[in-house]
């Protein structure tokens, strides 16, 4: 059982990361209006959010800048134009850089010349060496750096241990537990957090949690991780994120006890901006089809297609998914 | 941490209780068509559900039989007409009897003459003596009997201990942990299950879990309870239940490892019947307003009113709720 003090007290080391524009951007191809972004930024400041992730550092060689909103690329000049320099606010700015989908050597400039503070490297487990090259590059440029190892529910424990040992020896600051498919139960999160914790302790790293809501467990898995010593917590407004979405920011701030966090500005933003976003056609959040892919530990792409096609033949879809196993 | 064997193995003692018609009936005033009820019954049989709760044994003195569907009253003759005798199916039938809202002495007949097997007595903590009178009455008539102590998130631990000790000495078979307001976190469920477990062990009782989904924790709290030794688990199709609803039957059957449980018939029923029910205007499930009442540990009635009025002014509503504290 978790200590009672963890229910009523709080850990100063907790960091809340707003991933709305990054994971949520996967829903609307990053077409957020400047007004939305500015309002979200102001809300995060009021809510006490520690890090705001603005989007991806996507390669302009690989992705058509005319097809995506600007936060697929998160150019420094766009940040400065929409948000400003973000000086002395107490909140830090982040962008995600995917292994193999980012020209990090040229597109990520020195931190001293950028409004960004944190580079979040994302990779699959077989890409750890490439991730470490990106981590070292970002560290040399002065950034805080985290690493998301994605889709670990499909990885072997032996491989995960090797990856954690390699990351431990790298200059990365934070290693994330990522439940990409929303397939993990809290009992498994506890076990994974314990495993990651051994390496975090050995190498002096922080741990993070990034959850998906396929089985309506994103919040539960996130607070399970809190109880297991994980300090960096991803959340998004209204749970906006790919497919079934993520841990809801409002749930997480309602749970955390540090008085620096404020729920009320989040509520106002949900009323004013998120409702509008939904009306404009952005679709995310728990539905039966996402439960299926989560339960079967599969990538949500087939459930996303099911949603887009307006299908409702759940039994047929489930049978198709079983055929993919 | 939970034992690994609890993740991959299973406990024979687990009992799944389908509460769709009872808690879900609060959404549509128990207006389920006979076809729906018959199909649900057949589905539960195929899915391996252990108990099917058909509705309330509501007092016909207090409630107008013309205003509610028949499952507000769950007359034996209606069960026989729609479902039949339910002989030798392996699944048992249940009805809920609320303290103070049920003429149990006359309306609950001897089990040998009724298709019902289980009487679920529901009470608030100050009504335990009345609940015990009902428990003894139902036991004398030959039923299995459970007791739901509602709204314990607002009760004092000292009072709960007294209640558990009284129930322990009664002939009740199962004592339910009930998170009426959907306000409890899994860490609290663990603590409560531990407390209930002391009395269950002392008096040889089983424990049950009935969760609400206000913070999207109904499933998480239910499987937390499983890990804590709770064997009787309430769930509803698509989570249908008052306000934010309950633990989803599909999630629970996806989690449980006993091969007697089958998810597929549940999926087919969701496609064929639950979608139709939603189209007909029945509204339930997680929404922001239910999160507020859950977080603030309040009865969901104000959030239900907010929903019915079609309000979307979340910030104003939250402010109103704070004023009720």
Notes on the protein architecture:
The structure is a homodimer of 325-residue chains. The first copy, chain A, is an alpha/beta fold. Chain A has two domains: 4-279, Aldolase class I (TIM Barrel); 288-324, no CATH class. Helices cover 44% and strands 13% of the residues of chain A. Chain A contains 15 helices and eight strands. An eight-stranded parallel barrel of chain A has the order 1-2-3-4-5-6-7-8, surrounded by four helices. In chain A, strand 2 (51-56), helix 5 (76-82) and strand 3 (92-98) form a beta-alpha-beta unit. Chain A is globular, with a radius of gyration of 19 Å. The model of chain A has no long low-confidence stretch (mean pLDDT 96). The interface between A and B is large, with 43 and 43 residues.
Taken together, the total number of domains of chain A comes to 2
Shape of chain A: globular
Q: If helices are DSSP runs of H or I spanning 4 or more residues, what is the number of helices of chain A?
A: 15
N-to-C series of helices and strands of chain A: HEHHHEHEHEHEHEHEHEHHHHH
How large, in whole angstroms, is the Cα Rg of chain A?
Answer: 19 Å
| CATH topological fold name of the largest domain in chain A | TIM Barrel
Share of residues in strands of chain A:
5-15%
Number of strands of chain A: 8
Mean pLDDT of chain A: 96
In the predicted model, the low-confidence regions of chain A spanning at least 5 consecutive residues are none
Strand order of the largest sheet of chain A: 1-2-3-4-5-6-7-8
What fraction, in percent, of the residue positions of chain A are helical?
40-55%
| Name of the top-level CATH class of the largest domain in chain A | Alpha Beta
Looking at the overall shape, the CATH architecture of the largest domain in chain A is Alpha-Beta Barrel
